[in-house]
């Protein structure tokens, strides 16, 4: 089942863009991470949709990091291309 663009809100799109280094870097992202330090509700929704993954490094290593999945990167590319 595909993701409908209506399933992703503007804040989530902004978080994914930030993780990838901004809209100008989408064709060749120089990074793919968002260190939130703690669990983030918006990112958690993205994880449930398969658009992101999560790694909890523990508070002594910076806490929770989120990463855009390949599916998430394709969605962002689709949004920017339209």
Order of helices and strands: HEHEEH
Q: How much of the polypeptide forms β-strand, as a percent range? A: 5-15%
Which class best fits the helix and strand makeup?
alpha+beta
How far apart, in Å, are the first and last alpha carbons? 21 Å
Helix content: 25-40%
Number of helices: 3
**Into how many domains do the coordinates divide?**
1
Which ranges are low-confidence, i.e. pLDDT below 50, for 5 or more consecutive residues? none
Explained architecture:
The longest helix is centred in the last third of the chain and has 12 residues, at 70-81. The model has no long low-confidence stretch (mean pLDDT 87). The protein has one domain (5-81). It has helices at residues 10-19, 41-48, 70-81; strands spanning 34-35, 52-56, 64-68. The protein has 82 residues and is of the alpha+beta class. It contains three helices and three strands. A hairpin with a 7-residue loop joins strand 2 and strand 3 (64-68). The protein has a three-stranded antiparallel beta sheet. The chain starts with 9 loop residues before the first helix and ends with a helix. 37% of the residues lie in helices and 15% in strands. The chain is globular.
